[in-house]
Amino acid sequence: MIKKVICICLIAVILIPGIVCALSMDNTYLPEEIRLLIQKEETLNGFELITADEDTLRGYPTDISLVMLAKGECCILFVARETDAGWITQACSRKSLYPTKVMNEGIKLTKIDSQRFEIGWPGETYRFYAGGTDHYCWFYEAEIQTDKGICIAKGEGRESILFTCNGEETRWFPPYYDNQTWLNFNPYLFPKSIEEADRSNRIMASLSEYFPDGTAIKIKHLKRKTHLYNCPDKNSKEIDTSLLFKQDTFIYYGCLDDEWYIVGYQNDHDYSCVGYITKKMLSLSKREQRITKIALYNTPLIAEENTWLTMDPFYSQNQYIEIPAGTKMIGLGGLDANYVYVEVEINGETIRGFAPKKHLDTIC
Question: Which superkingdom does the taxonomy of this entry point to (predicted)?
Answer without folding.
Answer: Bacteria
